[in-house]
Amino acid sequence: MLHARKETFNRLHKTDHRTFVPIDKKKMKDDLLNLINPSIPLPSSSLDTTPDEKGKGNVSKRTGFLTTFAPHHTSFTLSMTGESISPEFKELDYSQRLKVVYNHNYDKIPRLAHGLDRVLEERGVHPVVGHDGRPNFTPFLSQIHDFDSLILHSGYMKPSQDQKLLSMARDNGCRYLSSTSSITSVLAKLYFTFSSKFTMNATSMSSGFQKVSTFTRRLERPISILMHNSNGVWAIDNNQGNVDHANQILMDLGHSLEKMLTLPEDEFNDKLLKSRNDSPHVFDDAYTFSQFGNIMYRSQIDCYSDKLKSQSKVFDLKTRATRKIRMDVGEHESYLGYHLDNIVGPQGSFEKEFYDLSRSAGIKYSLQARIGDMAGLFICYHNTKRIFGSEFVSLDALEDVVFWGKHIANDSFNVTNSLLQIILDTMASEMDPKYKYRLMLNEVRYNRGTPRLDIYVEEMSVSETFEHRSFSYYQQTEVAAEEAKQIVNPVKLYSLRLSSTINDFKIHGPLHYLPDDQLKVYYNFERVDTIPREQMLISYAEALRESELYNEFLG
To answer: Quick count: other Cβ atoms within 10 Å of Cβ 72?
Structure first.
């Protein structure tokens, strides 16, 4: 698809419209069955083009604009100009890399049971029951135990409570510590700000899914973390707020399903059934501790297999309830009749479930796997009562879907972590170690213009809760002003602004580029003192309401 413009190329004002989709036509048949390999480039011979002199694409004889070509239904427009970067911006050094510092309890990592190793070796979806009605694995996988009949030990420990993590951070000279479950939402928010891109690569999926290939609106919500100082190291915890989370049942069920996938039937029953146990059995957890600059991360490792052909032999276990159940968890039993009977298709298919997973959780899962030095994800699809099937998604394949290419995934990870260090260093220099802090990150989106991320830093020196007030209002605009009066702690506002260039040309709008392009990132991060306090608190209250984390700010 060509994006024609009347202007001509010149060095002072250059607009580069490109259409990018990495595709290999020979793999299309395999990809249809596998669902997850998004590398599907189509040749451009049918278009009236000639190669450009730099070899980065084709130059249309009709327009003279640099462009690469993709299937007629897929396009990615990149707008570049010769504008200079504002002098208030600094070039970001993102040369640092993640390194694994220590692997804890690796000899105790669970392994798949019931013949599920086959899923790792053979590409594609593996239904639990074949079309002939015969089980493809042990019958034990056909029915999920009622969660109420099980007794499980809750092994999750907040980063701020983990003495092993604190010790690893201090021994390696880190100023900050966190876990993958606490930090990935922050890195995702930084990625969306950095890239100005809210679309995923669905080119390997059925045409109906390609029409709506954006991430879910939920990922646009403001996100929140908690920070407090422990012996000179700032710990970063995820902030769950005080709102009841309806998906807790799925999280609890996920823990039991992980044991179901990795324990033989007799051992599962002996250690998890309430009828056989008075207290929960404590399983050993395995972790990878990895360091990026002055940040120490903890990643829980779910599973190991020497069947994997990748360098890493560990991977994540993800249990995924069907979409209808996830959308209405409280009434999940009403949707038990919705089954996954098809490989591909708009409804009742594994393809639909993977598509939804990619839109809502793909970026979180890919970041978790990368920080934990994992090979990918083992995804188990279920409806809380029965397992439908499983598939293994490599990290490379998932990153192709989320980031549109390994090169963009690599750069995005290094850029966002480098930005995170700058943000933390700046804010921590103005924090009092004796207080806990609540941070709210809210991305401000533009069609064109400099991407911006607002960060509200609330010092919980007066109270760790909000002052609940009852009030009435006549107009929606009055709500935030009234809700802001519930904020009793001191609040500061910081702002991160970003600008990027490709081959020294400034990017406007969504960022996309080829592996041999040169990416430079510029940033400006500073405290905002020009906004009146009352207006800042109103904006903070609006962000709290949009986050849907606190009952006091639900309008």
So the answer is: 10
